[in-house]
Design brief:
heterodimer, A: 222 residues, mainly alpha, 7 helices, 91% helix, B: 175 residues, Rna Polymerase Sigma Factor, Chain: A, Arc Repressor Mutant, subunit A, 2 domains, 74% helix, globular
């Protein structure tokens, strides 16, 4: 009998604890609901303030300017393409109709497709540029990082190319100075090319030094 | 021709949205105008390109508004990267109130001040927080924001929470 009473009293205590816990839970739910309401209220206020802060836009002028910018962009693309084709056509005309030495013939044969191909490539790149803007922001940022790395890579290749040309020129200069004593002509050419190599080198070093921070800045945006 | 008219309509309709996004990322009024024009051009080209290309573009988007907001945000981020590289990006958070639509309307001054404070506060947030909050304030859902930014919905929720905390602190500090 005494055991039963004890069990009953424990049950009662447990029930009272449960009630207490339930009321605490209710209180916490009410608090969180109030907090949620406050957050919703704050968000609604911010949304309204955000809309109020809309800068004025002259849509007619905007459309006119956008049309003009679009036309200029298209024109630039077309001019680049036409210029490339024109240079290639000129080279082809020389190859087909002008009396050329073997060396000149080979040179123009090699040169002929390059301007047209470059113009067509530029036009194709321009046509596909819009796709980058429709990527999600993360992919767009990854694309930008890749673009920066590629830019550095192109400058590196340019530097190697310039160095190779400079070395070739140096060899020619040494040969001509030793054989024909043409120091002024070859010396000047070597000096001018050295300036070009130095500028390309400085640009490459600057880009290489800036790359980590530029990549890190983009990473911060992710 | 029909397509051009359609795009013009689209630009007219979403110009305020683009202007708000531009103001969120750029404090300088003239740079803001430039950015709005760049956004418009990007939207035009994307819309035009998407119409020709059935594999991509806005056909897969939930709405045209989402498409425009995504292109505009990308352009804004692009602008920030360029400005950072030019080291000319201003962080002074100045806001020219004479250029707001509310200036000509009859809304009271307090409301306008709140709006300015909010824009100034938003511009002080990190880009990743600014983006989610700006999109949330535009009325996009967390799922839409996740799709636009290319991150998980849970990541958006986290960013929103932190962005709100930070903005609240900034707004409280403002005089």
């Amino acid at each position: 009998m005494s055991d039963n009473k004890k069990a009953l009293s424990e049950d009662k205590k447990a029930l009272s604890d449960n009630k207490k816990a339930l009321s605490e839970e209710k209180l916490s739910m009410a608090e969180s609901s109030t907090q949620m309401n406050e957050l919703d209220k704050q968000l609604a206020q911010w949304q309204s303030a955000y809309k109020d802060a809309t800068p004025s836009v002259d849509t007619d002028a905007l459309i006119k300017e956008t049309k003009s910018a679009r036309f200029k962009l298209k024109l630039k693309g077309a001019v680049d393409l036409v210029l490339g084709l024109a240079v290639s056509m000129w080279c082809l005309t020389l190859v087909l109709f002008e009396p050329l030495s073997t060396y000149q013939f080979l040179l123009f044969i090699v040169l002929t497709p390059i301007p047209a191909a470059f113009g067509a490539w530029g036009y194709w790149v321009r046509q596909k540029q819009w796709k980058v803007q429709t990527l999600d922001v993360q992919s767009m940022l990854a694309f930008k990082q890749n673009q920066l790395k590629q830019q550095l890579h192109y400058w590196k290749i340019s530097l190697y190319g310039c160095l190779a040309l400079w070395c070739g020129l140096l060899a020619l200069a040494v040969f001509n100075v030793l054989m024909f004593n043409a120091f002024t002509l070859w010396g000047t050419q070597l000096l001018i090319n050295s300036v070009v190599v130095f500028i390309v080198y400085r640009r490459y070093k600057k880009l290489a030094a800036d790359l980590p921070s530029a990549l890190a800045k983009i990473d911060d945006m992710k | 021709m029909k397509e051009t008219i359609q795009i013009e309509k689209l630009l007219s309709e979403y110009a305020p949205l683009m202007a708000r996004i531009a103001a969120t990322f750029e404090a300088n009024k003239s740079l803001q105008d430039e950015l709005i024009q760049e956004m418009s051009l990007a939207v035009w080209r994307a819309f035009e390109g998407a119409s020709k290309d059935s594999d991509s573009g806005f056909r897969g988007e939930a709405s045209v508004k989402t498409f425009v907001a995504k292109v505009a945000h990308n352009k804004a981020v692009d602008h920030v990267i360029k400005e950072q590289r030019r080291q000319e990006f201003t962080h002074d958070g100045e806001f020219d109130s004479s250029h707001t639509t509310s200036a000509s309307s009859s809304r009271d001054a307090t409301l306008q001040e709140n709006a300015m404070d909010l824009m100034t506060g938003l511009r002080q947030l990190e880009i990743k927080y600014r983006q989610v909050l700006a999109l949330l304030l535009e009325g996009f859902s967390q799922l839409e924001i996740a799709n636009m930014l290319g991150i998980k919905e849970s990541a958006v929720a986290k960013r929103v929470s932190r962005a709100r905390q930070q903005l609240t602190q900034i707004m409280e500090q403002q005089p």
